[in-house]
Each structure stands twice: as structure tokens, then as C-alpha cells.
What does this fold into?
Amino acid sequence: MSTNKPNTPYAQREQGYREKALKMYPWVCGRCAREFSGKRLSELTVHHKDHNHDNNPEDGSNWELLCLYCHDNEHSRYTDNQYQAEARPGSDLGPKETFKAFANLGDLLKGKQD
It folds into this structure.
């Protein structure tokens, strides 16, 4: 459940949960395990696991720290998955089988032909 008001500017909201996440979690990317400190700490981002930036529970259960590269990769994979789920190549084609070669095999073996 979000504690942020819907009209809170994104930058302000992001700064609040970023500070909390950096206090909660070690400064390590959750994917590539690179460690961050000093000036490079700005390369560590807060990723929302459910991709909902308004879902910011106080316990941080919807967050994980990811470096810029892994964060971009995660969002690219999510976007690709959305497009692939909507339309798959060939999904608009009709039934795969139109002719059943052995449909009347039983009748042919018994000597009954049309």
C-alpha cells in the first residue's frame, strides 16, 4: 500500500524511497553483484519488482537495488515480454492442420470406400 499522495512529483517521491532503500539494503546490484560506494553510488537505482512506482511499502518488499545497466536490461526484458505476449508471429493463422490423411483409414481397411 502506497503512502505517497498521487500528486507528489515523481522526483520527490523517488528521492524518498531511494533514501530508504539505500539505508535498508547493501550497496550491491541485485543482478550482477557489483558493489557501489562514493561517487559511483549514483549508478545504483531502485527497481520496483512489480513495475508500479506508486507501490512503495515501508518494508521495501517491492524494491531491489540494481545498477543502471541491469535496471535498463530488466525494463527492456519487461517491455519485450509485453509485446511478445500480445502478438506472436503466426498466431493469426488458422488451424495448423487442414487435411487428415488417415481420417477414413478404418473404413478403407474394411473395404468400405465412398
Notes: Residues 10-84 form one domain. The longest strand covers residues 44-48. Confidence is low (pLDDT under 50) at residues 1-5.
